[in-house]
Design goal:
By secondary structure, the chain is of the alpha/beta class. It folds into three domains: 264 residues, Metallo-dependent phosphatases (Purple Acid Phosphatase, chain A, domain 2); 60 residues, no CATH class; 50 residues, no CATH class. It contains twelve helices and 19 strands. A six-stranded mixed sheet has the order 6-5-4-1-15-16. It has a six-stranded mixed sheet with strand order 7-8-9-12-14-13, with no helix packed on it. Strands 17-18-19 form a three-stranded parallel sheet. Strand 4, helix 2 and strand 5 form a beta-alpha-beta unit. Helix 1 packs parallel to helix 2. The longest helix has 18 residues.
């Protein structure tokens, strides 16, 4: 059985106040092209369909269109809610959609019923576990010791009474210990949301969502497919892709089934990149004519002096400039401002000169000293 593993669409997301909805429409169309070329049997959506529990109308309409496109292709779709989703909203109409091959995870109720599909090698059981916290599971198993996320996941899996002599796929949305994170993911203090990968032993494939970088965990059987788009500059170096999963026959008693994993690259409508240089370098025709100026950009200027209205000027060339920083002697300075011990015996100009040096990691120029002296004299005259 061939499956397309997707997660973390984050429909409706805004990055640095830029709406990503048009980019999301584009990338979903690109995914549909890949699906048409691969002819899979099913599509897995491993949580964080939306970016907010109450998504925008545009985001809902976009997901509705995507589901309809998948249903028209007679695909089996298995979708769960993530930590950004509302489990109740995601579960709405689930029983009605089952007949169309669209299987939405219900709100967790202590017991999990699998979606059962068949291929030439027999039956495959798909277990859909939405994002769970220990409190979600503890209420159904009050006598069990459920203190951690690992405890909660183990209790939920144990309650499934899985026959591991058959092929089983788990779809869930959690942070597995050791996964590499990005800034755009929600973090818990001290890694309190970690789930130990040992709770997934026996599954033929574990389709994970939550982490934005594509990666395998202990083995390729436990995999994050990553986001289809870059959602923070910590993801600028990521290579986004679609994960294609092919499940074969069981190779023996107690063994996992045959598995093949490969990825197909995704190219976004606008890349999300970081560039750096002086203002003159980045605004020279030789530079910007050789690059994609409409990409989403984080620009770091290395000029020692701030450029007046730099954001407005740069957006004439780079309309999707999201973030501007400086990297110079002033910003690298790590000195703490301290009050001089002999402040009463120092002139205001000397004190301001010391303040300027601490803040900018360089002394004032002679022109700046002259200007400051004139300003101080003018202020004193006004006070008099």
């Amino acid at each position: 059985m061939k499956l397309i593993h997707l997660s973390d669409l984050h429909l409706g997301k805004r990055v640095n106040e830029f709406s990503m909805i048009d980019d999301q429409k584009y990338i979903l169309d690109e995914i549909l092209k890949i699906i048409d070329g691969e002819h899979p049997d099913g599509v897995i959506l491993a949580g964080d369909i939306y970016d907010k529990p109450v998504p925008s109308a545009e985001a809902v309409q976009l997901f509705d269109r995507f589901l309809c496109d998948l249903a028209e292709r007679k695909l089996q779709v298995m979708a769960i809610s993530g930590n950004h989703d509302s489990a109740e909203r995601m579960a709405f109409g689930a029983k009605l959609m089952d007949a169309s091959g669209i299987h939405m995870s219900p709100v967790y109720g202590g017991m999990t019923e699998p979606v059962i599909l068949d291929d030439e090698y027999g039956t495959i059981y798909f277990w859909m576990l939405p994002f769970l916290k220990p409190a979600h599971v503890r209420r159904f198993y009050p006598d069990a010791e459920i203190e951690s996320y690992t405890d909660a996941m183990k209790a939920a899996v144990d309650a499934m009474n899985i026959d591991f002599s058959k092929r089983n796929v788990l779809i869930t949305h959690q942070f597995v210990t050791g996964a590499g994170r990005s800034e755009s993911e929600e973090l818990s203090v001290g890694g309190s949301d970690n789930v130990d990968g040992t709770v997934f032993e026996g599954f033929d494939y574990v389709a994970l969502g939550h982490i934005h970088r594509p990666q395998n965990m202990e083995s390729e059987r436990i995999r994050y497919c990553g986001t289809p788009l870059k959602y923070s500059f910590s993801e600028a170096s990521h290579e986004k892709s679609v994960t294609v999963v092919e499940l074969g026959a069981k190779t023996g008693k107690g063994a996992c089934g045959e598995l093949q994993i490969r990825t197909i690259p995704l190219a976004a409508k606008h890349d999300l990149r970081e560039i750096r240089g002086t203002y003159l370098d980045l605004t020279s025709r030789d530079y910007y004519l050789g690059t994609r100026t409409d990409d989403y950009l984080h620009i770091t200027l290395t000029d020692e002096e701030d450029v007046p209205d730099a954001v407005g000027k740069l957006r004439i060339i780079y309309p999707n400039l999201m973030k501007l920083d400086y990297d110079n002697a002033r910003t690298r300075a790590s000195q703490n401002l301290t009050l001089a011990d002999d402040v009463e015996h120092r002139s205001p100009l000397d004190l301001f000169g010391e303040f300027y040096q601490v803040q900018n990691n360089q002394e004032m120029s002679s022109q700046q000293c002259e200007l400051m002296a004139q300003l101080i004299e003018k202020i004193w005259e006004g006070d008099a």
